Amino acid sequence: MTEATGRVALVTGASSGIGAATARLLAARGMRVVVNYLRSAPAAEEVVAGIEAAGGRAMAAQADVRGATAVERMVRQVEAAWGGIDVLVHNALTPYVIKPFHDMTWEELGGKLDDEMRAAFTVTKAVLPAMTEQGWGRIIYLGTGLSRRPREGMIALGTAKAALAQFARYLAQELGPRGITVNVVEPGPVADTRMANALDEELVRRQVAATPLGRLAHPGDVAQVVAFYADEDNAFMTGTTAAVNGGMAMY
């Protein structure tokens, strides 16, 4: 991959897990990275400090990505410091319930759908003007294998992420003529994340046993694929979905 020569990347939900790993990797490859967070200011500042200690450039930026005013304020903050955002990695995970459909209310299912799409809509709208003006941009959404392969109790998350994946394909079609690519990264189970902490040991054992590569993903495994999509050299892939699951599911 080529060095990113100072491109500006916004990574939402970057204070921990996949987002933090992605922020560190993009910074190591030469991008200036905005570490977005909702409530975890100390954790976000720790990610920034680690990037800077390694010779990279980063800033922390607080915003609830579901709120247009907060996102616009964050983007103005970035523009004042570094100019427009070249790369959007939308990783922030909005809350969801884990329960069967039988026990679920519309507020729980519809609320997750609304949060998921509202956040993607809001951050994408905010970064598009600068990308369009320069005729170059990279948008990467973090999905989940649950959007294709159901698992008990995960209907809210899986359905919302399936909607996000289709949203990305429509955007890829519309934004391609502007020089902007749009792709989705769909991890399977990832160790050292909030989602992984919700899994019991027996389920983890079964998942590892069903994975040809013999382990769960690490955040860094997912970050590598995101970084590929964000790279200057990746100029002719758009509307695609990358499954990062060690072969647990093959599409």
TrEMBL record:
The keyword Protein biosynthesis does not apply. It comes from the Bacteria. It holds the Pfam family adh_short_C2. InterPro entries: NAD(P)-bd_dom_sf, SDR, SDR_fam. GO terms for molecular function: 3-oxoacyl-[acyl-carrier-protein] reductase (NADPH) activity. Belongs to the short-chain dehydrogenases/reductases (SDR) family. This is 3-oxoacyl-[acyl-carrier protein] reductase. It comes from Nonomuraea jabiensis.
